């Protein structure tokens, strides 16, 4: 069995940048996990003394790292009012939709955010709207149908969403409204990892997608892979690999979400090789 | 054989308005045909003394009617400089994309017009751009692929185009550019006639679409009809009907383009009834 890595996988620009920032911020805590990967969070704690807390009340240090997904405007203001030192590791691709939502809401547009209302990035982006009552988070066209929108609409997307799903939202809006100002805020890294997994999953007969199970972009990679290769598996670490998955397989494709560190990917590839040797 | 009219067909708001304006403008000429229907043009000449001319040089009256499709900014300025009295029958749904193209080009957007570069409406709309070099008329995605566009794009449509084709253009732009400002300038009347012909052509076994053969929206109706009902015919007048078309047919659907007058539709229905009686 051959093992092949997708042409593009793993850490994106924003995550690499956030980790570099964290590695230089010994003694700081991140508010919420810096990235969606528990093993990387552990490494930062053990090797760089960078912890994380889940709620604002629990912060007992003076240095707070704002994570890649960003935080809400209100949380940021609260931290500033407490005199905390804020180290901003928000991905610039997330800062962008925050700015767009602020500007469009100021200009009288109804704002549609395509994404998951429970995702911290989306919560942060929405918080920047100047008109919360006219800012709507939707995951699909059915949700849109329940909203009475004005004639002028601006639409942005959570950075890690699938473009094909975003286009469904856009098409429904364009069909039914006079002006739709579409900001494609889906980030290129997501595109590139998605394209590469699509390509690879067409030739592979087993696909291993590595990433945190609470990571939205990893789940998207898994779904794209599953479309082309029925034997696709989403795993967080090497222990989850099962030898029987690899029996009679010729090509094992490997990809990883945007918050999966390289060291973890290499560990898993090593383990797959061992299983392969055992199977053969 | 039953004969059934589509739920929505024929004259739209803009055409009705233009004809009313023309009927009150005895002695005027329209620059270009007022609407895309030769028989209606003849009626206006005979009953209301409203002629038309093909080129600016041929105008020998002082009163000029600007037709529903609008004219170019340059032609308008030339006529004004000659001291002509301009009677504006431009459809308000056409004035809208003219204004949008002007405003967006002033604001630094690359402008994409989805339509036929040879159509007078499109020529008129394009002429309002303040940056002709950054204003592009395209009929399909392949044409778009040949153009290197900036990151900020505004897109409008010729009012009589199919929304599904417009969405292909929009989707390509959204997939490849950061900001796409989509103005859905396709007019509702076109939608309504299209929806109705789609519906009717699914149940009919012969479809007669009435309209000028140089009328873009009539051709669209014909194409939609043809998708569902293979025996679809586009005719301009009753003489074109062929008895053999109607043999062994149960339901004849009838629709008409946005510039087809009611009296013509009724004439044709009368003729179909005669053929039917002859066949039976």
Q: H/E series of chain A, N to C?
A: EHEHEEHEHEHEHEHEHEHEEH
Please state how the strands of the largest beta sheet of chain A are arranged side by side.
1-12-10-11
Tell me, what is the CATH class of the largest domain in chain A?
Alpha Beta
Span between N and C termini of chain A? 9 Å
What is the gyration radius of chain A calculated from CA atoms? 20 Å
Q: Roughly what percent helix of chain A?
A: 40-55%
CATH homologous superfamily of the largest domain in chain A, by name?
A: 4-hydroxy-3-methylbut-2-enyl diphosphate reductase, catalytic domain
Nearest-integer average pLDDT of chain A: 92
Basic shape of chain A? flat
Give the helix/strand class of chain A.
Answer: alpha/beta
* Largest interchain contact: A-B, 15 and 15 residues
Oligomer: homodimer
Q: Count helical runs of chain A.
A: 10
The overall strand count of chain A is 12
Beta percentage of chain A is: 15-25%
**What fold name stands as the CATH topology of the largest domain in chain A?**
Cobalt-precorrin-4 Transmethylase, domain 1
Biggest sheet architecture of chain A: 4 strands, parallel
Q: Please tell me the CATH architecture of the largest domain in chain A by its name.
A: 3-Layer(aba) Sandwich
- pLDDT < 50 stretches of chain A: none
For the record, the count of structural domains of chain A works out to 3
